[in-house]
What we know:
- There is one protein chain.
- By secondary structure, this protein is an all-alpha fold.
- The chain has one domain (about 15-80): Serine Threonine Protein Phosphatase 5, Tetratricopeptide repeat.
- The protein has four helices and no strands.
- It has helices spanning about 15-25, 35-45, 50-65, 70-80.
- Helix 2 runs antiparallel to helix 3 (about 50-65) and helix 2 (about 35-45) packs parallel to helix 4 (about 70-80).
- The longest helix has 18 residues, at about 50-65.
Amino acid sequence: xxxxxxxxxxxxxxxxxxxxxxxxxxxxxxxxxxxxxxxxxxxxxxxxxxxxxxxxxxxxxxxxxxxxxxxxxxxxxxxxxxxxxxxxxxxx
Length: 92
């Protein structure tokens, strides 16, 4: 994901990630857990932490109903966004 790793400037483009994730969320009707999770990460990567938190909360709520195995991880990312921290991908 373009918002995933700020240490790699060749792929790090938070604004592009936000645009793509916003489009995907629109196309999915805002009901796809993975898309909303990606959108939250993109919001956080652009410093829009309130929107990231709101979006992650929606994703977590949907995950609890449709993909409970994802809900805990999304809630962990939600805590980061509420603390003003973006998602950071660990080095490979």
